[in-house]
Amino acid sequence: MEKFEKLHGIAAPMPLVNIDTDMIIPKVFLKSIQRSGFGKHLFDEMRFNRDGTEIEDFVLNKPQYRAAEILIAGDNFGCGSSREHAPWAIADFGIKCIVSTSFADIFFNNCFKNGILPVVLPQEQVDLLMADSEKGANARVTVDLEAQEITTSEGEVITFDVDAHRKHCLLEGLDDIGQTMQKQSAIDSFEAQASAARPWV
Q1: pTM for this structure?
Q2: How far, CA to CA in Å, does 193 sit from each of 161, 180, 184, 201?
């Protein structure tokens, strides 16, 4: 998993509330257990007409937001089913941070496991970032995980809370497997002792 330290990028405004996981990645695309390849289907029913052409007024289809790495979202983002394909699609598209007033619990947890930083802020601060993101590609936002700060394009600093263990894992690029592999020497030692004690196994 890629490390998340400091991100300086374009923020896209998506003020809709209750964006569920089927809106993020429709169930028709859940045909693989590989983490890659889902980004092209992110928000498919909102991004594309049924003939495959782009819906021009959808935010991520607008030229100024095509390279967005930060999403400023409405309340209760990621609700609905627990599919991990939702953060897979978001990460594969290139979005590394989502800011909202609240997230569905399972989606929130899955974000950290897939290198995405979900930030919970009060409504007035989300509104501030939403307005800042509406300025377009020139209004870049900085997200500093180490300092736990978001800096707007105007230089205003917003602090946020994050669980210490999850912060460590993002900073070090550790998913569940990566955390396990940190204990490789202890695992090898245990297996060697177990093998010696029970050679018949």
Answers
A1: 0.86
A2: 42, 19, 14, 12
